[in-house]
Each structure stands twice: as structure tokens, then as C-alpha cells.
Amino acid sequence: xxxxxxxxxxxxxxxxxxxxxxxxxxxxxxxxxxxxxxxxxxxxxxxxxxxxxxxxxxxxxxxxxxxxxxxxxxxxxxxxxxxxxxxxxxxxxxxxxxxxxxxxxxxxxxxxxxxxxxxxxxxxxxxxxxxxxxxxxxxxxxxxxxxxxxxxxxxxxxxxxxxxxxxxxxxxxxxxxxxxxxxxxxxxxxxxxxxxxxxxxxxx
Length: 204
Ligand code: ATP
Hints:
This protein is α/β, with parallel strands linked by helices.
């Protein structure tokens, strides 16, 4: 059994995420590709995320009808920072003997040595990495000399980010080309990413 683990803040999930998830599932012949929205992404502590229930619902909307994909709320139920190594151990306990494939973009591969207990993590999983934003798949200096299992995902670049989707939502733009119809409708219905609320009205 080969299980793909695809973590992220998914704030919101977008068509770049979906392309990456599909490529990993199909190219690597995964039995299951599991999306794991982070509860408290400690590397993005400078920014307030949309509530976990919305991010989970948007990932469900984006992946509805996709074969061999499921959404896992393990990290949003866990208190404290979301560390991938904890999720990997939980998944190993749930599916003993399964091969775990950690699906990431090149930006995260480059940052991997900043992750919590990253050496233990690369020993425990196979990495599946896609190019992103013009950067080809390349290990960071700390990782290059270490033996680790890595598969390169052959994916045409998709120039979309959650940052761009949030900015487009705040500007009231059509989001469908960034996040697809279902997620765009969800964002509109729940008025997400509209920017900071206006200051309270003051009488002078
Ligand atoms: P933000 O713009 O808020 O930083 P993001 O678009 O990078 O968010 P994340 O939820 O942080 O989205 O990404 C989750 C995972 O998906 C990461 O491993 C990231 O590298 C990967 N990823 C995101 N967008 C793309 C893309 N367009 N192409 C390839 N990989 C991507």
C-alpha cells in the first residue's frame, strides 16, 4: 500500500494544489492521496488563517469526485503546532507497513531543513517533489549529501498560489481560474478573504 501525504495550509486550496495531487496519485500509482490541512502552520505564524472548518470544506469541495483522494482532519484536531513528523507517525500507526510518500512543491523541498525533526522525517518517507514558480526540483544544500528517497513529479508549472487567490478575493475578482468553480462559490458564500474589517464607525 502506497499512501501520499499532502499537507499545506490550503488557505484556500487552488488548482496548483489539485494538479500536484493528481500528478502524484497517477505518476506514483498511489493507492490513496491524503490531503492534510494544517491546524496551526507554525511556519506561517505571521498571518491569521481562515478557520480550519472552512479550509477543510474547501479541500473537500476541490477534490469531490476525485478517485483515491481523501481529506484528513488529523492536524486540525491536534492541539499545538502542526508538525508533519507527528502526522507521519500517526499514519504509520494507522496503516502499519504502508509506504508513505510526502508530496511537496520545490519551495517546501528547499525549506525542508527548517522543518521540525526533518532528518527523522526524510528517513521515514519517500519525497515526491514538483517544480514550482520556475524553480526546478533541486535538493537544498543540507539535504543533497544525505541519502534520501525522492521522486520528481513531471508536472507542467501551474502559476497559482493561495496568496494570489486571497488577493483576488479581496479585490472582488473572479476566482474560478485560480481555485475552480466549487471553491470560488464557497469563498463567495462565506465571504472569505474580504480583507480586514473596516474600523468601527465613530461619531465626531
Ligand atoms: P501561500 O501562497 O499562502 O504561501 P501556497 O499556495 O504555497 O500558499 P500551501 O498550502 O502553502 O499553498 O502549499 C501546500 C503545498 O503545495 C506545498 O508543498 C507547496 O509547495 C505546494 N504547492 C502550492 N502551490 C503549488 C503550485 N502552484 N505548484 C506546485 N506546488 C504547489
